[in-house]
C-alpha cells in the first residue's frame, strides 16, 4: 500500500522551479533514501511534503488524500513528521522537556501523552537515561537521537529525515542508523535524504537518485547501489567496471 505519492510536483523559491516534475512513491513500511549531488532538490522534496513549501503544480497525497499545499501543522496531524536538520533542540531545556514539546499537539490528552512518553522512552533509551540533563550538554549523536525521539511523540506514519548522519562520528552514526531501522521494524515508513550514500542506501529498502530537480533513477536500494553509474559517482567506483570511474559529483 502506498503511503505517500508525489506526481509531477513542481516547486521552487520564487526564482524559477527547483523541482521540475518529481514523481515519488513510498510504500508502507519501506525506507526510501534520496541521494544526489548538492543542489539536486533533495531537501526541497522534504520541504514540499511537510508543507513548508507550496508546490506550483503536481499532486502530493498521503494515504490517497491530497495534501499538496496544506499548512505544516495539518500535514503533521495527518501523520507526517519531519526531523529538522541539526540544532533543532532547545539547548537550555532538559531532554524530557524537549520530548514534551514534541507532544504539544496532544498535550490535552494526558493519557495519550503518558502512553507516548512510555513508548518513546522504550524505543530510545537515552530519553530516560538523560531525562534531566540539558539538551545542550549532549553529544552530537545523542542530540540526533533525541531529535528523532521528539518527533515520535506524534507516532507518525511517515517520518522525514534530512541527512541524519550529518556531523556524526562513526559510532553515533551506527546508533542513529540502528534507530531508523528499529522504527521501520515497528511499522513507520521512512523517507530520508543522505549524503552518506553508502549508509543511506545500506539501511534503505528503496533508493531514489535526484539530479537537477528530477528523479533520475528509482529502484530497490540494492539495484541503485549496484547501478554502475551510481557506484562510480558516489561509492568510489567499487562495483563499477574498471576504467569507468569518474570524479565525485559536488
Ligand atoms: N530557501 C531557499 N531560497 C532560495 N533558493 C533555495 C532555497 N533553498 C534551496 N534553494 C535552492 O534550491 C536548489 C535545491 O536546493 P536543495 O536544498 O533542495 O538541494 P539539496 O539536494 O538538498 O542539496 P544539498 O545536498 O546541498 O543539501 C538549490 O539550487 C538551492 O540553491
Ligand atoms: Mg539538502
Automatic annotation (TrEMBL):
One Gene Ontology term of the molecular function aspect: ATP binding
Residue ranges constituting the ABC transporter domain according to the UniProt record: 4-237
CDD domains in the cross-refs: ABC_TM1139_LivF_branched
Residues passing through the membrane, by range: none
Keyword ATP-binding belongs to the record: yes
SUPFAM superfamilies (alphabetical): P-loop containing nucleoside triphosphate hydrolases (SSF52540)
Pfam families noted in UniProt: ABC_tran (PF00005)
InterPro entries: AAA+_ATPase, ABC_transporter-like_ATP-bd, ABC_transporter-like_CS, BCAA_Transport_ATP-bd_LivF, P-loop_NTPase
Superkingdom assignment: Bacteria
Record key words, sorted: Amino-acid transport, ATP-binding, Nucleotide-binding, Transport
Matching PANTHER family: HIGH-AFFINITY BRANCHED-CHAIN AMINO ACID TRANSPORT ATP-BINDING PROTEIN LIVF
Family from the record: Belongs to the ABC transporter superfamily.
The protein's name in its UniProt record: ABC transporter ATP-binding protein
Organism: Sphaerisporangium corydalis
